[in-house]
Amino acid sequence: MVNHNFSLGSWISLGHPSIAEIMADAGFDWLCIDLEHSVTDFFEAQQLIMAIQSKGIKAYVRVGENNTRIIKRILDAGADGIIVPSVNSAAEALKAVKSVKYPPLGTRGVGLARAQSYGFGFENYRDVKAKEIKLIVQIEHINAIKELDSIIQTEGVDGTFIGPYDLSGSMGKPGQYDDDDVKEALRTYETIALKYDKWVGFHVVPPDYKLVLEKRDKGYNFIAFCFDAFFLGHAIREQLKRLK
User: Which one of 16, 37, 141, 203 is the catalytic residue?
Assistant: First the structure.
């Protein structure tokens, strides 16, 4: 099954805008700044968002937790979308939606920062740009698999993003992808997620394009391909192998 509504991005874990610019020039549809597993702070995140958007592509941010205050600050910095980790129920999905959306759908407070042109473009942001912000929730626990239909059906959720390692860990089998129970949980995710006209996400970590094609052909349409530090480290090691 090939989903032609396919969007390819990558992950930004290093906090320097030059790295984001190099990645943004490479041809991705979007880049996601990782605030969950990096030391990137809010100021650095805004610099990265600016660098990515200056190249005409979308800047998403994975926040560290389903936290209204964090999400608000990242959106006011101008992010095009938010990825929220470890959403395990419809109630948690709704909390994320409310954090992302202005009233009446949500409860997001009004700020006049970069996203709103520092106060000189609030109406346009509120009426147009804010409505285009994407919300992706990560499915990383067996409880989320059990609640997946209700999570995906939550109004304001644009898609899901599977976290296989943490999912397997929540089952007491971290990294055991050949385990029958883990394989069944991953199959269940695919079966349910692919029923809906929403993004179905996966992070292909190794820098091997064939793995991206395999996931695309299974129906995944929101794929992160590798990440900045791994691209860099892999390229260096491959060249040094030829010299030593």
Answer: 37
Consecutive H or E run containing 60: strand 58-62
Return the CATH number at 140. Answer: 3.20.20.60
Q: What is the enclosing helix (H) or strand (E) of 98?
A: helix 90-100
Domain membership flag for residue 115 = yes
pLDDT, tens digit (0-9, with 9 covering 90-100), for 21-35: 999 999 999 999 999
Amino acid at 154: T
Range of the domain at 29: 7-243
203 is catalytic: no
Looking at the 3D structure of the chain, how many domains does it have? 1
Residue with tokens 């000189």: 120
Closest CA to 168 of 197, 193, 189: 189
Encode pLDDT of 139-155 as tens digits.
Answer: 999 999 999 999 999 99
The answer to the question of residue 237 being in a domain is yes
Per DSSP, the three-state class of 168 is: helix
Instruction: Output the CA–CA distances (angstroms, integers) from residue 17 to 48, 81, 115, 210, in the order listed.
Output: 5, 18, 18, 29
